Amino acid sequence: MLLTIQTTHRPATDLGYLLHKNPARVQQFELSAGSAWVFYPEAQDDACTAALLVDLDPIALVRGRIGARDGGLLDQYVNDRPYAANSFLAAAIAQVYGSALNGRSDERAELADTPIPLVARIPALPSRGGPGLIERLFAPLGYEVEASRQPVDPGRPEWGESAYYNLVLRGIVRLQDLLRHLYVLIPVLDDDKHYWVGRDEIDKLLSRGEGWLAAHPARELITDRYLRRQRHLTREALARLSADEAPDPDAAEAAHTAEEALVEEPLRLNEERIASVSAVLTSAGAKRVLDLGCGEGQLIQALLKNPAFEQVTGVDVSVRSLETAARRLRLKEMHETARARVQLLHGSLVYRDARLDGFDAAAVVEVVEHLDPSRLASFERVIFQHARPTTVVLTTPNREYNVRFPSLPAERMRHRDHRFEWSRTEFQAWAVQVARTHGYTTRFIPVGREDPEVGPPTQMAVFTR
Ligand code: SAH
After folding, report:
1. What is the pTM of this model?
2. Per-residue pLDDT for 201 more than 50?
């Protein structure tokens, strides 16, 4: 496996300081199953190239069972692992170029933080997903991507093309960013890993992905493959990632929530919603209740006052909201038996989650309108197909009512994070279709004083199965 990195930033030999590797020497490093060498095929003032050559020992792979293949005996000894760029190369980058990967350079600190012209070359890169995937992964990061298929044997063109690409990436980037992109994306392209992927892999992904992964258009594919399609890990990583997207989305959300409260305040709508939802849950005879998208825990607080609710579990994607909820509910000070009735879970409602199974009822209060329309179908399956509580109480704003809010400019939604607001017809059509698909019946209850023309400020659907 070979990775070369070239710069033409003058003096180009400063690359040696950035990589902490002297251009004048060939250096060898021991890896878990082989060796790595760093050497410089060229080291001039106007161009300098550092080569990282990784030589895996296929026998060590089999003996140590490190990344051993599942196939037959021959496949264990004869396979592409020593040659094709894969997770071993990523591991070698972290081990051999660790300081550069972390952006540290004692002697050229400023240069380490400066985008410079860099060209990375990997002569045998697998891509499960073809050349299109290579482009899809690297182009959004600002690289000019050149990926051509390698022939099986250059001396025998009649043998055709191999499954490996000759990759050339050109960009003006910080060296640490180039290394971080390669570290994450090489195993993603190979779609394999030589070691067991556990929870600590999420931290690696998020730390190496900091500053670029959250905004990457293929972040879900990257996360899914990087974590070897372990859904529970992927889900957690994406939830943490989406919390990373803006500098502080929780703070923005909190400010917007305050704004929404201000718009709706004259109607005391929040209290009305809590009262209506509690009433429906009580009359349904629910004992174990979920509050999905519980926010700062106001509904949970109200429900806990009623001993008929034996277990109340709040779920939210925002850690900040959950922390506020925990303070509001005084979880720390609670007596053990009272404490056992409440649970706060960090999770996203658009990923299937076994922790949501086994409840009598779920409240989803002012949450759907925060979901991206493209995620709505996943949300429906998570709640109505998998978790399947007997009763689901769901509220959302009635868009028609917005004209009655004097402080709300025309055509504005009540909360800047709302992705949509439904009219009564739209909401009812959605709810009826969801109920029909998943074997529930629906009824609709207005919340807040109903206006003869535009209806109630909040609309509520009660799903029962
Ligand atoms: N139900 C609360 C909060 C409503 S605000 C109340 O009525 O006061 C919407 C809440 O949904 C926010 O706390 C937000 O963090 C949460 N949310 C948004 N998208 C989510 C998702 N995909 N999974 C879980 N919670 C989500």
Report:
1. 0.52
2. yes
